[in-house]
Amino acid sequence: MPTLQRMAAARPGRRQFLAAGLGAGLGASGAGLPRQAAAAAVIGDWLAFRRRFLDADGRVRDTGNGGISHSEGQGAGLLFAVRFDDRPSFERILAWTRAVLRRPDDQLLAWAYRPGAPIPVPDLNNASDGDLLVAWALAEAAERWGRPDYRALAAEMARDLLRRVVLQQGDQTLLLPGAEGFLKPDHVVVNPSYYITPAFRVLARLQPSPQWRALEEDGLALVDQARFGRWRLPADWVALSRGAARPAPAQGWPARFSYDAIRVPLNLAWGGHAQAAALRAAVDFWQDPAHAAPPAWVDLRSNAVAPYPADTGQRAILQLAAATLAGRGRPEALPGVAEAAAYYPAVLTLQARIAWAERGLTEGACGSGALLVTQPPAPGAEAAPGRWLRSIWPAALRIGG
């Protein structure tokens, strides 16, 4: 069977045909047309991401960081592949990830692979955000493709996350960024952008524990309390004293709302936390009329902003966050993956598109996930996370290798 790219190139209008088919049942005019256009755009974004950043062996390349690969990128690739029912890509990504990044003593993953280095995986420490994304994708793949082995592996990863990187400090449940290196004599270092609440909810069904709910609730409290500077924004890295002192930007990293912390509003929007103060603060910062364009970062001590504007990934998160606050928006305002200069803005852009659709933010859509749904759940049934993309591909147009 030809790949989707070959079919799309076979004759003019194939992409428009696909968009119309994906919008079936949503109406041919009015709100239907924007949703059909969004269907075509999000398909094109996945194809562009796969073409630019996914190697044939399943390695996702971070082109803005020397071509390294890391568990966060592998997890994002897996989640994208399952959401687009791209089973061949999923299997390749998973095989490479498990073969190269698997740690010897648990089911978590080493955080980075450096091609061409004498020891390509020099550090076996994990990155909790990458592990969360991989386990989340495995859980969804198990449901989508009827793979109990994927479900079992996701449950084992969830168990090891609880065992290795979830810490109880007083009445707080904390997520350590990795199993090693973040427990200091007088404080704990955390990264607020690692609190991926939709993943917590999925993994709670596989490995039931009250800690998942505590992570979500305490993570929300953390991003509310750990906000600094003129615009009251979360820092990339935060130090939590073992005493009663308030959170502070962690030593050893710039005290910035920057390339890590921009994922905080992404995760808040994706999790449906429209009332979170940090979400509003991020939008207010990016839309401050004092800026000629949204800045790429801000120093939380001096309030100095970057001398260059936000990239396409940050702009996608801004549009998502603003639409979340308003309860609706126009998806054509989102930039596309083709506009991204490198891996990271591309992955943020595609995540923002998925979150947008999952939260049902398109103007005229009715209910969560209404965008692109082609096989709605039975009456009275709750829509499963990601259903809007699990049914996106007609059976005859599955993505080939």
Task: Give me some keywords for this one.
401 residues; mainly alpha; three-stranded antiparallel β-sheet; disordered C terminus
List the helices and strands and how they pair.
Blueprint: H1 4-10, H2 14-22, H3 32-53, E1 69-70, H4 71-83, H5 87-101, E2 112-113, H6 128-145, H7 148-164, E3 166-169, E4 172-175, E5 187-190, H8 197-206, H9 210-225, E6 227-228, E7 233-234, E8 238-241, E9 248-249, E10 256-257, H10 263-270, H11 277-286, E11 298-299, H12 312-326, H13 343-358, H14 387-390
Antiparallel strand pairs: 1-2, 3-4, 5-8, 6-7, 8-9, 10-11
Helix pairs in contact: 2-3, 3-13, 4-5, 4-6, 6-7, 6-8, 8-9, 10-12, 10-13, 11-12, 12-13
Sum up the overall morphology in one term: globular
Which sequence of SSEs, written as H and E, runs from N to C? Answer: HHHEHHEHHEEEHHEEEEEHHEHHH
Work out the strand percent: 5-15%
Overall structural class, as computed from helix and strand content, comes to mainly alpha
Integer-rounded radius of gyration? 20 Å
Number of strands: 11
**Alpha-carbon distance between the two ends:** 10 Å
Summed over residues and divided by their number, the pLDDT gives a mean of 85
Biggest sheet character: 3 strands, antiparallel
Number of helical runs?
A: 14
Could you give the order of strands across the largest sheet?
A: 5-8-9
Helix content: 40-55%
Residue windows where pLDDT falls under 50 for at least 5 positions: 1-31, 365-401
